[in-house]
Structure formats: structure tokens, C-alpha cells
Design goal:
single chain; alpha/beta; D-Maltodextrin-Binding Protein, domain 2; 2 domains; ten-stranded mixed beta sheet; 12 helices; globular
């Protein structure tokens, strides 16, 4: 078949497929939509999912429900959604933990890259490096100097092995070339308590959880993990400008669909969610929670997940980090 004939044949196939794609979008949704959250209520994946569910219910004229199925760092919920019908009626609300899972679990009941299709990133947040005032470190440079002067003597807390707070600390450890010991806690409140008490020397805390403690003087903020300073603590420099050039660790949240969900359906969801996340009143609700609305294209979200999987896998191998 000559090239011109091949081109004509391909165009004919595309023309034949367009009505089906349009039909998939026009007939969607045909029943209630479930957004499955692999974590308990109140966290970022849950907060973002509930706002999006409310807005989708209004714009799509169909019920959208949020279903919490916590356990194993979100992998139980992910495994269930990976096996759901790929028709856009079952979605998964995820955090950065979705990219951590393949780095720390030896086996997963799904492939995080092949079994899902990105719908959109919904929000980003950042970490605030905090220390107890009793430590005596008033800047990041002073903290790093303490760590280098006494290798293995300082430790950092986290919300648990494999958590975002853990990997944010491991990235600092790697990029600053310091020898510090990881001390996992049951969760964020426990990690903050130990740092306030001075039993752990520093903690890469989600900014919304730590900002009040910093303003009260119970913790000292030495750096934020994003490329730019944060409006909640504008006086605190970024970690990159404070002494570790190039450091960046972002906590993100977003929505995924089963991999074979029609592209037209994903495009429709992406457009509706982007409109919802652009509403001005949302920022006033999310800013105090440390959340910044940040819709993206499906392809951009897929690339972010793939890049973070590589980063977390490298850190996990270097630090011999595995889930229990």
C-alpha cells in the first residue's frame, strides 16, 4: 500500500472512530460516579476528593460519592480501582503515596503506570522543615553544620516508613550529604510532638500541620520544600535558597481512572474539574490548609507520577527502605 493510500486508510479509521468517541462523552455519566480514597477522612486526598465530588455532581447532573477505603498506604484502594470497569464511573483520589508504593512494596496487585490513566492533578502542598528551639539551630546551615560535625548523632522523625514526610527527609539527607537517623512515628501528630520535645531533631512536616506551632514559637521553621516561599510563613526561606541548592519536595494530590477509560471521558472529567478548581472561593478555603489548586492535563499528571516513581525508587534503594 502506497503512503497516500495508507494515509487515506488511517483517516477513514479516525473518521469512523470519532462518532464513537463523541458518543462516549455525550452519554457520560450514565450512573453515579464513585471517587475512592485510600485514606481516612480529613487528609488531603479526602478533602480534595470531596470538593471535586460536590462540583462534579453539580456540573454533570449526576450523583458523585466519595468512598474511603484506607489501608496499606492507599494500595488497597488502588488495587480495587485498577480492576474496576474502565468507564469513568470509578475514580481514585491519590497523593504522592501512589508514587511511593512501587518503591517500598516488593509486590503490588497493580502496576501504578500501566493500570491507571491520569485525569488531573488537583492540588499541591509543601513541607516545612522544623526543629525544636532547644536544639539551637536558627538556620538550615546551622542544622547541617551540626549534622556534619556529629555524623549519626542527629535524627529526624516522620509520619511513618514510606510516608511523604519520610522521603522528604531522605531527599534532604541525600542532597545535603548528611548522616542522620530516621525515626518513624505513627503519624504526623506524634512526629510533631517528638520534635517539639526535642527528642527528634527535625521533621519535614506538612506545612498546614506545623505553621501554628512555628507562629507560637514551639518550633522553628528553617525552610520550605517548594521552589518559592510560602505565604503562610513568608519569612522562612526555601530549603534551596537556605543551603541545599536544587532541593524540592512537593506533596501532591490528584485523580486517576482505570487505564482503558475512554479518552473522551477523561477529557470531559479533566475539563469539568479544571473549571471547579479555578473558582476564586476555593483558594480562600484551601490556603489555610496548605493546599494550592493546580489542575493539569492528563498527560502532565502521568509524567509527574512517572518522574516521582523514579525519584522515590532511587531514594528507597539508597536508604534500603522497605515497607513492613
Amino acid at each position: 500500500m502506497r503512503f497516500s493510500h495508507k494515509l487515506a486508510f488511517a483517516c477513514a479509521l479516525l473518521a469512523a472512530a470519532l462518532p464513537a468517541l463523541a458518543g462516549a462523552q455525550e452519554g457520560y455519566p450514565s450512573k453515579p460516579i464513585r471517587i475512592v480514597v485510600g485514606f481516612t477522612p480529613g487528609g488531603g486526598p479526602d478533602i480534595t476528593a470531596r470538593y471535586i465530588a460536590q462540583k462534579l455532581s453539580e456540573s454533570l447532573k449526576q450523583q458523585v460519592v466519595v468512598e474511603n477505603r484506607p489501608g496499606a498506604g492507599g494500595t488497597i484502594a488502588a488495587g480495587q480501582v485498577a480492576q474496576a470497569a474502565p468507564d469513568g464511573h470509578t475514580l481514585l483520589s491519590v497523593s504522592s503515596a501512589h508514587a511511593v508504593a512501587p518503591a517500598i512494596y516488593e509486590k503490588l496487585p497493580y502496576d501504578p503506570r500501566r493500570d491507571f490513566a491520569g485525569v488531573t492533578l488537583s492540588a499541591v502542598s509543601k513541607y516545612l522543615l522544623v526543629v525544636s528551639p532547644s536544639l539551637g539551630a536558627k538556620t538550615l546551615q546551622e542544622l547541617l553544620a551540626m549534622a556534619k560535625a556529629r555524623p549519626g548523632a542527629l535524627n529526624f522523625s516522620s509520619a511513618g516508613v514510606g510516608s511523604g514526610t519520610h522521603f522528604a527527609g531522605e531527599l534532604l539527607k541525600s542532597m545535603a550529604a548528611i548522616d542522620v537517623v530516621h525515626v518513624p512515628m505513627k503519624g504526623i501528630p506524634e512526629a510533631l510532638t517528638e520534635t517539639v520535645a526535642g527528642r527528634t531533631q527535625f521533621f519535614m512536616a506538612p506545612i498546614a500541620n506545623a505553621v501554628n506551632l512555628v507562629k507560637e514559637g514551639r518550633l522553628a521553621g528553617l525552610g520550605v520544600s517548594s521552589p518559592q516561599r510560602d505565604g503562610l510563613v513568608p519569612e522562612v526561606p526555601t530549603i534551596a535558597e537556605a543551603g541545599v541548592p536544587g532541593y524540592e519536595s512537593i506533596l501532591w494530590f490528584g485523580l486517576l481512572a482505570p487505564a482503558k477509560t475512554p479518552r473522551a471521558v477523561i477529557a470531559k472529567l479533566n475539563g469539568e474539574i479544571a473549571r471547579a478548581l479555578s473558582e476564586a472561593e476555593l483558594r480562600s478555603r484551601w490556603t489555610p490548609l496548605g493546599l494550592e489548586p493546580k489542575p493539569t492535563s492528563p498527560a502532565e499528571f502521568d509524567r509527574l507520577i512517572a518522574a516521582d516513581i523514579e525519584t522515590f525508587t532511587r531514594l528507597a534503594r539508597a536508604g534500603n527502605i522497605r515497607a513492613d
